[in-house]
Write a structure and sequence with these properties.
Length: 615
């Protein structure tokens, strides 16, 4: 990995000025928003479309995308990982015109609250509990870890006041900054800060993509690593885009074999739609922004605006990730070796460790001294008895280091650009983290605290509880996050663990929309059935890709709920009563724009397919 990366005074100045400006704007714009729960948690239901659109992107695009998605692209997945973005564009259009009208009409604060309208209070509580686990155990810790990993590696050779910050240090810095920021200003602070950070994110990604493509074009073919097994011949003088296609033919297709364990083509039919619809339509830390819409028209315009921006994300995140492997495969291998060493040294020093290392012959031949420590450690673990956790150690590539390598090696130094890129990345991390903390505190306050313990609580009390819970959740995230390097790809960790809840939650909502006569306990059955079924499939049929597992769970839950509805129908259908003063007139212009977004997405799929020009 390059050791030439330096951070100059101009970069530090730009870095801190940007972060200070973002936080200042957020706090200034949110003054007085803590007077009641609606103003604090939903920005007084006054968000305009442009603020909603950019805020959705800023809350979504964080280190898990820049680090995780670019890392997956550097691996064999290539453009296939872009399905998470382009399918999201279509998903958002559906959410705008199918989900949002119901949500705004009922006047809900949280997505779990809607289940009480359709099913019963138990369904609401179950979803609130499941959502809290996902937000804190998966989203919160994942964002903190990926952000701290990025910052710790980028600042590895830089000392703040004589101290070089570790991954754990960065976890606490990121977590506490976000906690103070969101506790003070609520959703309005988050949304206004997102406006600056969202624009900066797009610019940051475009800067990295530009320099990556330029470097690829300037580098002799012999110095590049092909991403495909059988690359096309290409001349040294060819441009970056020509080399990208020639070296990465296999990676440029969105369609992968049905046996692929990550994104098989079968997942594009059902499986991948499940996390997309859950995330964009039912995930509180995203939907909280659209629940704060000033009207249905503003919400729909904002969502379609975000959908249009989604189409450009793969070009500034996925493509640079593919190029990173072409340019820096050797450095990715070095990064993996260092990650292996950290994992080993952490466990070898722990006498109570139950980790048993499984090492391959290639790794043993390169690390005789470490292998001796591993052998002694494994013997001690075996002798201690009890449950043993096997961890595989092998040579390979640390693909999540792709983004760091691009920044370290490509961004011009002593220009202020490094400071801007680092500030945009940290801002993205804080933005997403603030969104998660705000969502978790809202659900805890409204769905758990008020609903079950203090139904008559004063508005000021609810805001105070929300602020306290922000701090508690941030501390939990900072304590857990440093341990996530055991799971390999952070992006895959986040996506796979959501399978325990997202298919069931989506099935319960979809069924609730289309079937109004099934009894209330139907939703409870659906929410409880999904995690049990997902666990059984993962345990007894681990060869099934996690996206296909989601599809099986979703279909099974829908069938079971339909059977219950057929056997025990309600005498009268459930009616979603209007409980809001918002203008619920739909946006005709947004509907036209939404159709354009859907058509554009389908065209991109054709281009990046076995039949497209990318082949």
């Amino acid at each position: 990995m390059s050791d030439t990366f330096s951070i100059f005074t101009i970069d530090i100045v730009v870095f801190f000025l940007f972060i200070a400006a973002v936080i200042a704007v957020g706090l200034i714009k949110s003054r007085g928003e803590g007077k009641d729960s609606e103003s604090y948690f939903l920005a007084g239901r006054g968000l305009k479309w442009w603020l909603i659109g950019v805020s959705l992107i800023a809350a979504n695009i964080s280190s898990e995308q820049f680090v995780g998605m670019s890392g997956q692209a550097a691996d064999y997945l290539g453009m296939a990982i872009a399905s998470y973005e382009w399918m999201a564009a279509i998903t958002l259009v559906v959410v705008a015109f199918f989900f949002l009208p119901y949500f705004l009409r009922t006047g809900i604060f949280t997505i779990p609250q809607f289940l009480e309208h359709r099913y019963n209070p138990t369904a609401r509580t179950l979803m609130a509990a499941a959502t809290m686990i996902l937000l804190i155990g998966v989203s919160l810790t994942g964002v903190i870890y990926a952000g701290a990993l990025t910052m710790s590696e980028l600042f590895a050779n830089y000392a703040f006041f004589g101290v070089t910050l570790t991954l754990a240090n960065w976890c606490w810095i990121i977590g506490m900054v976000a906690a103070v920021y969101i506790a003070a200003g609520g959703l309005n602070a988050s949304a206004w800060a997102d406006l600056i950070q969202g624009i900066a994110l797009i610019i940051c990604g475009a800067i990295i993509a530009y320099f990556a493509m330029s470097k690829l074009g300037d580098t002799p073919v012999a110095a590049l690593t092909a991403g495909s097994a059988n690359p096309d011949p290409v001349a040294d003088g060819a441009g970056g885009f020509t080399k990208l296609l020639a070296l990465n033919r296999d990676k440029m297709s969105m369609i992968l074999p049905s046996g692929d364990k990550n994104i098989p083509w079968t997942a594009l039919i059902i499986g991948l739609w499940i996390p997309n619809f859950y995330y964009w339509g039912l995930n509180q830390y995203i939907t909280q922004r659209i629940l704060g819409s000033a009207s249905l028209r503003e919400g729909q315009k904002g969502i379609v605006f975000a959908a249009a921006m989604k189409l450009i994300i793969p070009f500034i995140i996925v493509i640079p990730g593919i190029i990173a492997f072409n340019l820096y495969s050797k450095d990715l291998a070095v990064a993996q070796e260092r990650a292996n060493e950290r994992a080993i040294l952490r466990e070898v020093g722990d006498k109570g460790s139950k980790t048993f290392f499984v090492v391959d012959e290639t790794w043993i031949s390169k690390h005789a001294e470490l292998q001796a420590k591993v052998a002694a450690h494994n013997a001690a673990v075996r002798a201690a008895g009890g449950e043993i956790k096997e961890v595989e150690i092998k040579s390979g590539y640390k693909f999540d280091a792709a983004l760091n390598l691009l920044i370290k090696n490509l961004i011009p130094q002593n220009s202020g650009l490094v400071g801007f890129v680092l500030a945009a990345l940290l801002g993205a991390i804080v933005s997403s983290l603030a969104a998660v903390l705000n969502a978790a505190s809202t659900i805890f306050t409204m769905d758990i605290f008020q609903r079950n313990f203090a139904p008559q609580a004063a508005q000021r009390t609810l805001v105070t509880v929300g602020r306290i819970s922000v701090g508690v959740f941030a501390v939990i995230g900072c304590l857990v996050a440093p341990n996530l390097d055991k799971f390999g790809s952070i992006f895959k960790y986040i996506q796979e663990f959501q399978g325990y809840a997202s298919p069931g939650i989506l099935a319960v909502f979809v069924f609730g929309f289309i079937n109004r006569r099934a009894p209330g306990y139907t939703g409870v059955v659906g929410l409880l059935l999904n995690p049990a079924l997902y666990f059984l499939i993962a345990t007894f049929a681990p060869g099934i890709a996690f996206l296909d597992r989601m599809a099986i769970c979703f279909g099974t839950v829908m069938i079971v709920m339909w059977l219950i509805g057929m056997i025990k129908p309600l005498p009268e259908p459930v009616v979603f009563k209007t409980n809001t003063n918002l203008n619920l007139t739909a946006s005709a212009g947004s509907k036209t724009a939404g159709i354009v977004v859907v058509v554009a997405t389908l065209i991109l799929y054709v281009i990046f397919s076995p039949l497209g020009i990318a082949r």
